[in-house]
Amino acid sequence: MTATIDATPTVLRPHAEQLYAAELEALAAADDLPRPPGWRLSPQAVVTYLLGDGKDISAKYIGPRRLMEVAVATLATDRALLLLGVPGTAKTWVSEHLAAAISGDSTLLVQGTAGTPEEAMRYGWNYARLLAEGPTAGAVVASPVMRAMRTGAIARIEELTRVPSDVQDTLLTILSEKTLPVPELGEEVQAVKGFNVIATANDRDRGVNELSSALRRRFNTVVLPVPGTVEEEVEIVAQRVASLGRALELPEVPDAITEIRRVVTVFRELREGLTADGRTKLKSPSGTLSTAEAISVMTSGMALASHFGDGTVRAADVAAGIRGAVVRDSVSDAVVWREYLETVARERDGWKDFYRAARDAE
């Protein structure tokens, strides 16, 4: 079996359960281990889906196996899962694939923002029917969380710490009692076995809307780290860029690994404030320079090389993208970037082309 992509061609970004339907089907067919109630796969098979098996199942997450085992084990209990990390550490990606593997549905999603209303967590009303019929079951508009409770699925809440505190607290009863009262109808929705919640939160948002201690106790927290080594980060970027290139139907790029390694090296050195050989201290810019941004820079570089170049990604195709990611503040970040070019890029063997392209992009 191969990692077949069998999504509808007209869909720009298929859901995980569509994109990897063949892998999920194969895992389910071969999976003879016990499955928690409502789960489509056993916990072992879910971890295999996430990390790959080196043969037929592709890796969706590259990182410590133990972290994924803890995350999956949490969802098999009555505790919800909070994925915490700096931007670009694959929190959303992991939550989507966990929901796809466990429930076969990753679409029960609440996007947390400063304006997220209580209705997004609980339920709303179809006001035309409410005026015509009064408060009836037919007038209730179920939230993704309510639908997940009814079907025994995984609900996803993105950027939970951006949600106002009073709206966050609507989760308390849902997570502790596994019920959602509907007082207007004198009823409640009781969660079906298999229901659980995966929330994500950004380390950079600490202090915006901190979770109350009562709500935090209802989550097990798994911190997703930045990739530990250059090789690990290069592998992640190469894999995602190839996947995105197929999804966007970009022409095949023969070999972009040299530029991927260069982008990753620049990002890591500026992020850590130190060159890879440990000899030169550097200033760090205000931006995150996450792995996700490295993927974006490389995808743009591939599009440039494919449509306006000879099909080979070169330094000139990624230089402007790197500068755009580094220089978020036109004054302070520009100084950081210029110092990096003059003290590191200009002196490094094999980087002359990148230095010239980056200076031309100034």
From TrEMBL:
ATPase dynein-related AAA domain segment(s): 81-219
InterPro entries reported in the protein's UniProt record: ATPase_dyneun-rel_AAA (IPR011704), CbbQ/NirQ/NorQ/GpvN (IPR050764), P-loop_NTPase (IPR027417)
GO molecular function ontology, one term from the record: ATP binding
One Pfam family linked to the record: AAA_5
Annotated protein name in UniProt: ATPase
